[in-house]
Amino acid sequence: MSGPIKHIVMWRLRGETPAERSAARSKVKTLFEGLKGRIEGLTHIEVGADISDVDYACDVVLVSEFTNSAALKAYATHPEHLRVREELGDLRIGRFQVDYPIKETGA
């Protein structure tokens, strides 16, 4: 695939109390949003923390876009991304991912 790619990841996070889960959500959001402008080919990054508090919801969603599949692949091993993963440690207890090509709109 040579066109833009959307990369969506959702996590369940560790935390026994609502306060611990809230702190975990904030940490994930802050660390991933800190990648903005630091990784070539990463054109959009957005992190949302769940507010529904339903028992089947994920805690955090990452929505990002890359110029192409090569940029997404490079992101996986980029030192800044690896640093974020290291800082989060075992905070994430469940992970779900979807990657798909973005249809380009034209006139």
From TrEMBL:
<feature type="domain" description="Stress-response A/B barrel">
    <location>
        <begin position="5"/>
        <end position="100"/>
    </location>
</feature>
<dbReference type="InterPro" id="IPR011008">
    <property type="entry name" value="Dimeric_a/b-barrel"/>
</dbReference>
<dbReference type="Pfam" id="PF07876">
    <property type="entry name" value="Dabb"/>
</dbReference>
<dbReference type="InterPro" id="IPR013097">
    <property type="entry name" value="Dabb"/>
</dbReference>
<protein>
    <submittedName>
        <fullName>Dabb family protein</fullName>
    </submittedName>
</protein>
